[in-house]
Amino acid sequence: MALPTIDDLPTRAEYQEMVDEPLPDRVPTWVPLADFLSPYNQMQYWYNELTETDVPVPETRTVSVIESVTGTPTYDTDEVIDVVDELGGTAFVRSEYKASYTARQSKIPDTNPENVEYWMTEFLSTLAMQGLPVGEQLWLREWLDLDWAGDDLDPWHPEIRAFIDDGEVLCWHLRDADELHNADEIVEDVGLSPSMNPVGSLRAWLAPDWEETVSEYAQAVADQFEGSWSVDFVKTTDGDWYCTDMALRALTPVSGEWNEMSGHPGNCEHQLVRHLPASYLDSDDRSPEGVDAEAEQLIEEMEMDTDA
To answer: Are 230 and 246 in contact (CB under 8 A)?
Structure first.
């Protein structure tokens, strides 16, 4: 499928033309707006572009999605087994838009046909529960050893999210640092001294990795991509860093509210919602006029017209 370029992403002015009522003057005109299901967020868009750089990525393959007689998506078990075998006997599965809630739910542990069918069905079920489309293909990736801390139900590994904008690296953060409820345990698991600020300790622990390695990878991605993006990097237990995911850096309407498409710590000057005034953020009614289901549908129609 031919995907649009980043230049096709609607500006606020173009977004305004797609809705009947005026948008409030709460979002600066330079802030990018997008739908989560934008073609840019499809893995086939950013992964193919990413492979044009020298940034390490997990070995990756695709398998076809087949529509069953009931209309539900399925797959060829033999094809999946062959691909998992090519990837070393264990694989990570994801859709065009995202993986499962946890790495455990996205893991195909071996090539036993019964296990493959169980975990593939489990993965497709999680997509259905999230209301996410499956698409025409699924992505199987080399399984990376990220067994750093926590357990199967609540694992943790070093992960850096960088934000880039038109060739510039804006900032970097511990991924999901605002939601790291077990930071004290993680600090202990990775061998650091107890701290009154465990999240800060983990960031300081990763700072040399950022300075020596990951910042160069982030800059290489920034040099390759136009527009604003989040870029995720993970560290394996062997000490190697890989780029595993990307998404637009944009505001998206969710239940009538403006939300960051990629989680961004609130203390960062580059967080987009910081450019909304306090009166909006503190209001009980945060719904911007004109940003509703009809507007989202218009965005999708615009993207489909671009694809055609």
So the answer is: yes
